[in-house]
Design a protein that fits this description.
24% of the residues lie in helices and 23% in strands. By secondary structure, the protein is α/β, with parallel strands linked by helices. It has one domain: Rossmann fold, CATH 3.40.50. Strands 2-1-3-4-6-5 form a six-stranded mixed beta sheet, with helices on both faces.
Length: 169
């Protein structure tokens, strides 16, 4: 059920490229590459790539071949991730259309990053579930289009009134 929701998020906008970062999310590759599967009908024609880390992906010449706006990314971030903030920042810049971050515990005695660390980059919590062996798993999503909504006052109604330019008050 959880993997099905992940796939639906990744294929909703019919991207040209789906990048899976981190071995635990490679499990989605088979389902995303399945031909004519009704579960992934949106991904028809999407190129699915796998990379061990975001740094390895950025060094790959293929990473520069496609426009970042045509790419969606699913990133596995373990609880012991070194430089988590750097990784999240790179992911947001590499795939502004959609970044899904699966943040999971590797052992019961470890703690996940605080939600606020994700919120600081503009992520939203999409799912919280219990993964294998009773470990906690959270899914966060980032879209540049959702990051900063236009405020209600930013419209023509609140701008200068040209008909009043010549008035002396």
């Amino acid at each position: 059920m959880y993997d099905q929701q992940l796939i639906e998020f990744l294929t909703a906008d019919t991207p040209r490229e789906i990048v899976l970062i981190g071995e635990p999310v490679f499990r989605l590759s088979g389902q995303l590459n399945a031909p004519q599967s009704p579960a992934v009908s949106g991904s028809v024609g999407a190129n699915v790539l796998e990379s061990a880390s975001i740094e390895h992906f950025l060094k790959d010449p293929h990473a520069q071949e496609i426009t970042a706006s045509d790419r969606v990314m699913c990133l596995h971030l373990p609880d012991k991730a070194a430089k988590a903030a750097t990784t999240l920042g790179l992911a947001c810049r590499t795939s502004p259309r959609l970044v899904l971050v699966e943040h999971a515990q590797t052992s019961p005695d470890t703690q996940l990053l605080a939600d606020e660390q994700f919120f600081a980059f503009g992520f939203r919590r999409l799912l919280t579930s219990t993964c294998n062996s009773g470990m906690q798993c959270k899914l966060f999503g980032y879209r540049l289009s959702d990051y900063k909504q236009a405020p209600s006052w930013l419209n023509a109604r609140f701008w200068a009134h040209p008909e009043r330019f010549d008035l002396q008050e």
